[in-house]
Each structure stands twice: as structure tokens, then as C-alpha cells.
Amino acid sequence: MPIPDTVPILGISWGDVLFLVLAAVMLGSALLVVTLRDIIRCGLAMIVAFGALAGIYVMLGAPLVAAAQVLVYIGAIAVLILFAVMLTQAKNAPVRLVFQAQALPAAIAAIVLAVMIALTASATDWGAVTRRIATGTDALARLLFSSYILPFEVVSVLLLMAVIGGIFLAKREGRDA
Amino acid sequence: MSQSLDAYLVVSGILFAIGSFGFLARRNAISMLMSIELMLNAVNLTIVAFGAFIPALNGTASVIALMVMAVAAAEATVGLAIVMAIYRNRRTPLVDEYDAMRQ
User: Fold this and answer.
1) For residues B38 and B54, what is the distance between their CA atoms, to the nearest angstrom?
2) Distance from CA of B103 to the nearest CA of A (A)
3) B18 in Cβ contact with A31 (< 8 Å)
């Protein structure tokens, strides 16, 4: 039985359904990240948000960026944050309020920001084509290692500096240091 | 909908607003770092969306997105190390108790 071009009941295309599901999962888990009380659950919701965003990158035709998103964010940054959570949360700390006193003005400001960005983005003519263009990994590698070789090397030096700085800052100091 | 640039820009704008709310409203320093990661991801989504819909930016956008990811990893490393160092001295991860310079 052939698959129809559009979703049978809703009448919209499969790509739109996939985009809506991924966007809803991403925004929903991002809301959980900023609202949940338990910070470990915040970190786990953040992993879900990163995974859904990797799916959106695949839809946008950037598979290498999606792979890097999974490797860097889910594999490295999320694990790093979860380790830091487990090292800094005291077990017998009293249950405190999660939010600052300025949470309500911050919520209003965030909603205003979202509405403003949405209105501006949809009102502006970006000169965009209506057909997505996929970025081939081969072409991307050639671009990265010819035109952008200097930023690439600078980023590697930056990562080395971050590693050394992170070890220096997080190192437990000796008795006389 | 998935064939228009506007939808991706709106989604990334909402994600950025959620991240900015978390950064302004949470008390825990690690929660604030998570919110910064959300905002960086929103910007990355905008860059990749522009690269996918505007032909002149096609390859460059992916390169910029990869660079942003590397810098975000460096930022998370140093930020979490600073949080750990402060936690060892003050015994709390809550930012509104870091008031030594106010007194």
C-alpha cells in the first residue's frame, strides 16, 4: 500500500508533521529545563531538547552539524553539567525556592522578547528561497580545510586553553597553595 | 511550514526567550549555565536555518555553527570550573548568596 503524500486526516505534509513534533518536543523540554525544581531532571530534559534540535538540523539538511550536536552537546556538555550538579548539590541542604524574586518580571520580559522576535522574523522579507538546500559533508569538509583553516586552528588552541583553565580552576588546592 | 524560513526563525526565537527567562529567573548557578546553553542552541538553529534557505550562505553557515559549538564547549568547561571553585569556598550553588563583594 503506497504512503499518501499528505497526512490522511489533517491534510498537511509529513515534513510539516515531523517539524511540528520536533519543535514541540524541543520547546516543551526547554520549558521543563527552566521550570523544574529538581536540577538533575533539568539536565535530563536538556538532553531531550538537544536531541530534538539535532533532528531539526537533519531536517534542515545539515547532517554533520546534527552529528556534532549529538556528540558535543549530548555526549560532552550534558554529561559535564550532570557531573557538576552531582558535585555541587549538598545532600542535606534545605529545600529552597527555585526562582529569584525577579522571576515574574523575567517571565514577562521573555514573553515580550519571544513575541517581538516572532513578529520581526515573519514580517521581514529575507530574500530566502522556498526550497531547502542540503549541505554536503564533502563540500563542507573542503570549505573547512581550505577557506576556514585559520579559524579551525584557532578553535583548537581555544579548546586547549579551556582544558588547561578548567583544570586549574577546578583543581583542589594544596595545603600551602 | 517546514519549507519556510520563518517557522524555523520563530521556533529559535521562542527557544532563545525560554533560555533568557531561565538565566534571569533561576537561583542555581548550574541552572543559569544550562539556560545559556539553550540560548546558544537557539542562535545555532538560526544560523543553520539561514544557511539552508539562502544559497549564498549554504556552506559557511555550517562552518559557523560548528565553531559556535566548539566555543560553547569551552565556555561550559570554564563556567562549570568557576562554579566548582566558588562552591568549594562558599558551600552553596545559589547565586544570590554570592554577596562577598557587596559588603
Assistant:
1) 24
2) 20
3) yes
| ipTM of the complex in this document | 0.91
At A98, is the secondary structure helix, strand, or coil?
coil
Q: What percent of chain A has pLDDT over 70?
A: 92
Rounded to whole angstroms, how far apart are CA atoms A57 and A128?
A: 18
Distance in angstroms (rounded) separating the CA atoms of residues B15 and A23: 10
CB B94 within 8 A of CB B29: yes
Sign of the CA dihedral running A161, A162, A167, A169: positive
**A118, A111 Cβ separation under 8 angstroms:** no
Does the predicted TM-score (pTM) go above 0.95? no
Contact A19, A59 (CB under 8 A): yes
B:17-76 residues touching chain A, CB 8 A cutoff? 17-22, 24-31, 33-35, 37-38, 41, 44-45, 48-55, 58-63, 65-67, 69-76
Amino acid letter at A169?
L
Determine the 3-state secondary structure of B26 from DSSP.
strand
Q: Which residues of chain A have pLDDT under 70?
A: 1, 90-97, 173-177
Q: Say what the pLDDT of residue A39 is.
A: 87
Q: What CA–CA distance (Å, rounded) separates A55 from B65? A: 15
A108: CB partners within 8 A, 6+ apart: none
CA distance B72 to A57: 17
